[in-house]
Structures are given as C-alpha cells and as structure tokens.
Amino acid sequence: MKRKQCRLLALILVLLIGILSSCTIQNTITEAVPSIPGTTPESSPSNKDAAPLKAHFIDVGQGDCSFIQLADGRSILIDGGNRADFPVISNYLQGQKVKKIDYLIATHPHEDHIGALPAIIKNFEIGNIYMPKAMSNTKIFEELLSSIKTKGYSINTAAAGVVMIDEADVKLAFLAPNTADYDELNNYSAVMKLTYKNTSFLFTGDAEDVSEKEMLIKNLDVKVDVLKVGHHGGRTSTTKEFLARVAPKAAVISAGKDNDYGHPHKETLDKLNAEKVQIYRTDLQGSIICSSDGSSIKIDKMPIAAAENKDVRAAYIGNINSKVFHLPSCSALPKPENKVKLSTRTDAQNAGYQPCQRCKP
Amino acid sequence: MRYIIDRFEGSYAVCEDEKGNMINIEIAHIPRDAKEGDVLMRVVEHYAIDINETQIRKAKIQKMMEELWKS
Q1: DSSP state for residue A84 in the 8-state scheme
Q2: Fewest C-beta in 10 Å: which of A10, A90, A176, A302?
C-alpha cells in the first residue's frame, strides 16, 4: 500500500515538473489558418493529428547546431558545431530517427559552425546543400568540400532572395547575405526565416551589425516569434534597431558554458531583457526544443529569469590605478587587488576609464 | 607547427593547428595586419604570417570551390 502511494506521488511530481518546466508562446496575431485539403504533401500524416514542426537547438558547447523537423517528416540541419561534436550531433539525429537530411545549411565557414559537417555528410544522406559563397583557408573547410565531392553532391549559393521551400504551410528563405564581399566571414552568414503557418523562426548564424543593417535597409521582413540570436549573443550582433524590427517573443542563445569569449555578452542580454524577450540558453539549459503546431510555439524549458541573466561575468575589467579597462580575456589584466568589474563600455567611459591598447575593448 | 586563423573572438585569434585542434592565440602576439585565413608560423614568442603558404592554400581551396558550386 505504501509503495502504491509512493508511486502515485512520484507520478504527480513528474506531471507537475512537466507542466512547470515548459513554456508556451501564444501567437496572438491571428488564428490558425484552416488547412486546405490537397495542399499538404502526400507523405504527411493526416491533417487532424499532424505532428508539430520541431526546432531543436542542439547543445554543442561553444558553437551552433540547429535541427528542424517539418510536420511532414522532412529535416533541415543548420550548422554542425565544432569538429569534436560529431558524436553528440550524430547521436541526437539518430535519437530522432533521422536517416536523410533534406536541407543542409552551413551558415558560414567558421570551425564552430562547420566542425562536424564533414563527418555528418559522410554518414548521412543529404538532399540539398546551401552555403554562402565565402572561403576559408582552414583544413576543416577543405575537409567539408572534400566530403561533398566524395558523395557527388554540389553546393547551392545561400544569398538573400533564394527560397528553399515555398509551400502553403511552410516557407524557408534566405534574408542574407545581401552583398558578395565582406571584410569578415561572420557577415557572410546565411540568415534564414522559417515560417510554419502563423509561427516563425529566424536563424542568423554569426551575422553582425553590418549584415543586420543591410537587411533593415532592404526592408526585409525579419519579424518572427523565435530569434536564434546572432553570434552566440556577442555584442557585435543584435543591434537595437534590428531587435526592434525582429520583435521576437523568445530568443535562443547557443554558447558554451564559461566559454573563453564571454558569450553571451551582457550588452546583448540587456537589450533582450529591455524588450522583454524570453531568453533560452544552451550554456545553462542544454539543448532546447521548440514545437510549433502552426498557431503557437511550445518550448521545453522555462525562460531564464532576467535576474539570472544579469549574473554573468563582468563584460569589462578596469584597473583602479591606471584607469584603463580591458576585455576579461586580455593578456594585460590588472592584479586582483586593482581589478574592478565594469558592466558596459559606457559605464567604463563614464567612470573615466580608457580602453586598453592591447585588447581594444 | 603552422596555424591557420579561423576567426577572431574578442582579444583572441582562434586558430587551427596542423592536427585540426583549435587554439586561442592572443592577438597581441600576431601581426597587426593578420586576417582570417592567414597561415601563421611561430617565431620565438610571437607569430609571423607565412605569405607563401597562405597563397598556396587559397589557390587550392578556390579551385575546389569552383568545382563544387552550382553556377
């Protein structure tokens, strides 16, 4: 008898945790569009119990890897983490019973985004591959090209205006890059918008202020429900103007716990908090799954409280004697007794601190 | 040992060594004009750009890209 009560209690507890630990974003704009018979692909389950679209933000530490399952079973992989992340990603995909990746997008050729892609291409069947026409000199990029060649695949150019999927319920299109020539690879990042009925997602790779500005100048429709925050929450992405136009209800940040670069930066978290955007972080919460039924999006974790987001490492470190401020990663940091934490650049300058010549904060 | 600059993050150049490992090199230790894709070689405590090796890799990868990209 006691055992039964125990089990019942455990069951109630499990149910309660389940209810409390997930979060729904209700789309208040419009009601769900009624499904029109004959417009859904044959392979999809019946309209009545259509599986939701699922966007998985896979925890690959300091890197990016997003995986999307469309309601009809087709799959999309955006980036492939670091070189060492292949077992993590492969296990995750196998757990989702993925055999074929219908759309593979490498947002830009940095190692923390393409690292495991050569092994993924070798081990999975791939449909269409999209990459911005950007070159890297690294071995990992060379390996990525070799793996594509070995399988006999070719590469489609990812650029603003290119549409990958254009169906009644699902649309997947690139909003960037908008130029063919940038100084740094981050701004070549393929930015894409995924729309499923009345819900939408924006995947931004490592696009920085330069690319964000171009999207705004071209007046592209960047407004979405869920924003995958650019460049791991780095301060050179997610400008105030861009965030205002995206106007997301939720934001997902993919970063590694206690990473060397201080991602996500405090400035980005402050901007998101100021706009009252719900924040989700792979560095604190592991992989994050968003499920969309076409009218609302359910997220499998609770948003990080604003107070918790504030409790990040200091963005800058000042020297109380020399009145110089540094990045936390600078090689010329002051002695512990002379250190002072400064949360923003403005705070540092208002307090009379000058930027360090070495780390150029 | 040579290192290829993959990217810059804050005060680091994130570089790929010959074994494919990623290492952080402080930008104070590399030439000021170093860019993504430059091949570095170690000179005492600092690094210099190996211009020749950088050009060889660029030409090789450029050729591979041309073969694989749909026009």
Answers
A1: G
A2: A10
Q: List pLDDT tens digits, range A261-296.
A: 999 999 999 999 999 999 999 999 999 999 999 999
Give residue A38's region: left, alpha or beta (phi > 0; psi -120 to 50): left
Rounded Cα distance, A281 and A288, in Å: 8
Contact B6 A329 (CB under 8 A): no
Q: What is the dihedral of CA A153, A156, A157, A160, to 10 degrees?
A: -150
Residues 6 or more apart in contact with residue A350 via CB below 8 angstroms: none
| Complex ipTM value | 0.97
Q: Compute the CA torsion angle A177, A58, A115, A361 (nearest 10 deg).
A: 60
CA A140, A280, A245 angle in degrees (round to 5)? 90
Question: Which has the closest alpha carbon to A310: A271, A270, A279?
Answer: A270
Give the closest of A133, A139, A261 to B10, CB-based. Answer: A261
Which residue has 């008898």 as its token pair? A1
Sign of the four-CA dihedral A93, A98, A99, A103: negative
Segments in chain A forming alpha helices (H): 2-20, 86-95, 111-114, 117-123, 139-150, 209-217, 240-246, 266-274, 282-285, 306-310, 345-350
Q: Does A344 touch chain B (CB under 8 A)?
A: no
Beta-carbon count within 10 A of A167 CB: 12
Model pTM score: 0.81
Residue A202 three-state SS: strand
B20, B26, B28 member nearest A139 (Cβ):
B20
Task: Find chain A residues with C-beta within 8 A of B28's C-beta.
Answer: 331-332, 358-359
